[in-house]
Amino acid sequence: MLVYAATIFTGAFLLFQVEPLLARYILPWFGGTSAVWITCMLFFQLLLVAGYAYSHLVATRLQPRRQMVVHIAIVSACLLLMGGLALTWQSPITPGPAWKPLNPDFPITKIFVLLLVSIGLPFFILSTTGPLLQAWFARSHQGRSPYRLYALSNVGSLLALVTYPFLVEPALTLRAQAIVWSMLFVAFAIGVVLCGLKLAKSADSTASHASAGFSTNPADSAAPTRATYALWIALAAVASVMLLATTNQICQEVAVVPFLWVLPLAIYLLSFIICFDSERWYQRGIFHPALAVAIFLSCIILCRSTANIFSQVLIYCVLLFTACMVCHGELVKLKPSERHLTSFYLMVAVGGALGGIFAALIAPRIFTGYWEFHLAIWTSALVLCVVAMKDPDSWIHERRPMTAMALLIGALLLPQLLGHETLAGAMRGLGNRNQALGTFVAFGLIAAIAFRKDSILTSKRPGLIVQAGVVAGLIVVAGVLVVSIAANLVTSSLATRNFYGTLTVYSLNNEDPEKHSFKLRHGRIVHGIQYTAPDKRKVPVSYYTRDSGLGLLMAHLPRRFAPDPHDRSIRMGAIGLGIGTVAAFGQPGDYIRFYEINPAVTKIATEPNGFFTYLRDTPAKVDIIPGDARLSMEREVANGDLQKFDVLIVDAFAGDAIPVHLLTREAVEIYLRELSPNGVLAIHISNRYLDLRPVVHELAERFKLHSGWMHAPGGPLSQQSDWILLARNDDVIGQPEVASKLQSLDTQRKVRLWTDDYSNLFQILK
């Protein structure tokens, strides 16, 4: 068993190591957005389905010896292909720069093509490992369950997931990671060959067995029904949607904390490990009520904006864990005999892929917010009811008055606790909250008496009252979730969503014309605020006020004080458009060039009758260059179209998934070529969780740049901000009025120079 275990473990480890590795490698090519990770996960889920389908066909249609020959031939072809690519690329799995996208159109399609070319065949082979080698094990080790090997594969997956951001990425460059991974893949291929030889040997010794090693007991080999197949898919799909929806909810709507995306996926894999290790770990009497309580608490947290970050993350993770335990625990209860093992894994993979398709492709098109999380909550409650109803021995078919009371009281309390008039209106006839609670307690007691054992109403259907409580709970939870969505839509003036995330416009202080403003938010990150009062409309606010580091720079540009008015115009570049606040610094004759990858941001900032007017009000000439700023500037430099900016603003580091490729040695080389000789590079580093000063300090040392950091505490029209100014000389930032307000970048924290091949966020966590 050791050879099988080692090979399956290694395959699963490599599977989950290459996912973040390739996502990290192509991330700069698509703007550094977190949506790249979701898209990569979808690609890998779809390829996993292909691998499981192949495993099912091979294991059920071919004789053992032919299975070995076919699979080893594919593995050998993969090794030859990787060897050939290693001669062309930096490593066998990292595509060369010629594969960089030329424009931002159709990012999902381009990501799919890149991944298919670079890692398609190796990943396909790795995805076949779990089901195919378990089928081989079942044939060669009769009487021993292969399902623990599935739990072992999930241990390997979890270990890979945890070690990559904490150990592998900080220690190795991307090229080194790819080379080490490729070497481990060769070792894995050797393990596959050894397993194949064991299968062939076992097949020769058991050739007289009609079933080639599988049980011939009709009770063990009965084919699953269509309903069972559908339930396998549904359970896997609900868990997959819950995983991706929770990831979006936590990382985009709750807190932009680095590495927080690891937590949901770790919980998801942990539930697989626990459930498939042994059936004794999953107990309905524990996890069914736990899921009900988690749903109840999640509904409260969703509708209460005052909940702190820790409470939200904790409750959402508990919800994810209990939902995945229910889904995966029920899958284990429904698992077939070894004869149908590959079809079982195929249906689980199909369900996971369908969940991924919904979360990554469908939800962004039909929802303006992360409403798939609300849907996942309700479907998890629904699937719990379905599996309970399907089992005639489950609690939902029993006479349980106390359970019914708990469900009915919960259905009453939930809308009352939330205070939503839409839901509570139906309860107004019951009076205040205490009266309503008393009424439902009385109702439960009456029900307990009415549905006693000798009751005529429940003699044929003992679980009727429990089922009624379940239906009431489903209706109320659906109502609460719908009202939560409606409340978010009502409080926003505009909400939109695309590949790059959600954008929401809020109207603030509507009752006071002097304080009325519009705010654009990307998830939890504020992209800009503009007041509507005539005396404030053209004033830069938020991070860009006159008191900020950028405001200090713009007020002391020497060109602004040139004797000849024609020489006072400047050229500005800005990475990140937001609402166009930077345009407020523009004067007649100026040129401002924005680089913006998100077309939805451009649309909101430039709409003729839109909420924001900075771009319409500025007297400067404005151009907006679509696509990733780094790639756009690289093309400008390559074509000799140098912009010669007097000021280049880099404003892209407020979130957790910061675009690292905009703050590397290679990026700064591009920036310096785009700057005029006396130009200034202004980098906005305001971030709640990351201290980027050591990174920029290393870059300044590398290029021998003059530097300074300015912290602005914030005020009535401004937010707390941190700006770093870099220049080749002291003509601008060396002026006494500027230098006196700048602090040194030389912090006690030392980091390694960031390059396109190496970065480490752990070193700069606050």
Overview of this protein structure:
The chain is an alpha/beta fold and 766 residues long. Helix content is 56%, strand content 10%. The protein contains 24 helices and 11 strands. The protein has helices spanning 2-26, 35-61, 64-88, 107-140, 147-171, 174-205, 218-221, 226-254, 262-277, 284-303, 309-333, 341-366, 372-390, 401-418, 421-424, 433-450, 464-491, 549-555, 599-606, 614-617, 629-638, 665-674, 693-702, 736-739; strands spanning 492-498, 501-508, 517-522, 525-531, 571-575, 591-596, 621-626, 645-650, 675-684, 706-712, 721-727. The strands form 2 sheets. It has a 7-stranded mixed β-sheet with strand order 7-6-5-8-9-11-10, sandwiched between helices. The chain has a 4-stranded antiparallel β-sheet with strand order 1-2-3-4. Strand 10 and strand 11 (721-727) form a beta hairpin. The radius of gyration is 30 Å and the shape is globular. Residues 207-216, 420-433 and 454-458 have low confidence and may be disordered.
Oligomer: single chain
Largest sheet: 7 strands, mixed
Count of alpha/pi helices: 24
Shape: globular
Distance between the termini: 46 Å
User: What is the rounded Rg?
Assistant: 30 Å
Low-confidence spans: pLDDT under 50, at least 5 residues?
Answer: 207-216, 420-433, 454-458
Strands side by side in the biggest sheet: 7-6-5-8-9-11-10
> What is the mean predicted local confidence, pLDDT?
84
Content of β-strand: 5-15%
**Structure class:** alpha/beta
Percent in helix: 55-70%
Number of separate strands: 11
Keywords:
11 strands; seven-stranded mixed β-sheet; 766 residues; alpha/beta; four-stranded antiparallel β-sheet; 10% strand
